[in-house]
Amino acid sequence: MASPSREELIEIVTREVLSALAERSDICASPEKLRQVVANGADRVSFHGEAEDVPLDLARYIDHTLLKPDATAV
């Protein structure tokens, strides 16, 4: 069996790293999980999604300094 090329090796390592990171992600995919993070002491969080999807009780925790410079209101 031939050794993988440099590009193939990079692809293999990249897939393994992304897979490992996905398993240990700090992403809170639901409002309930985010509420747990806030209850445990978080005072700022980031949000990726539509503004109307943010529960009102969590909106004040969003770090608005992370907004893109061209962000606009919905």
Helix-strand pattern: HH
Rg is 18 Å
How far apart are the first and last residues' alpha carbons, in Å?
56 Å
Beta-strand proportion? under 5%
Tally the helices: 2
Class computed from helices, strands and strand pairing: mainly alpha
**Average pLDDT figure:** 79
Instruction: Label the overall shape.
Output: elongated
Q: Percentage of helical residues?
A: 25-40%
For the report, how would you describe the main beta sheet? none
Structure, explained:
- There is one protein chain.
- The chain is mostly helical and about 70 residues long.
- It has a domain at about 25-74.
- The chain is about 35% helix and about 0% strand.
- The protein is built from 2 helices and no strands.
- It has helices at about 5-25, 30-40.
- The longest helix has 18 residues, at about 5-25.
- It starts with 5 loop residues before the first helix and ends in a 35-residue tail after the last helix.
Secondary structure: elements and pairs:
Layout: H1 6-23, H2 31-39
